[in-house]
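dude i think i finally got it to work??
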Amino acid sequence: MIHCKPRTNTYLALVLVLLILVSGLIYILNHFATQRTFGLAFYLIASVILTLVILLLLIKMMAAFKFISAGKEKIITSLPLRGKTISYDLNQVMVWDEEKMISNKREFKQLTIAFDDNTSFTISNHEHVNYDDFVQYLQKKVPKKKVSALKKIKNEQQKKP
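look at this
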């Protein structure tokens, strides 16, 4: 069975950035409460921006915290923060697609799987382990469900007026 789970290094880096942002917010609020050397507008703007960035980072971390397993003709998706685990048979896969981009001389891959109950699942090679094994499993078991490059080009051409 192939298990794709979030990379520990990614979450450690995000938690470190989150701690830095929270300590910055605490410092700004403490500075306002004790010294007030800057204007009120600075404290308001800085605390709002830091709070928004912290919230967006937390939401991103929670949304990316998902697991997917494949094997024995099944795909099992798990969202622990929602308490959801759903098992799909391979015949319930409507379509799957892998997008590849090169950025900063590194290849970024993202896999999207759509199931027949109108749900989809997305994982990437930078955020999840065993990504390549999972793609090989899909290519081996459900190659006809992959969106081909020709279909993508045709759909894009049809969308343009």
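The longest helix spans residues 8-34.
im so relieved honestly
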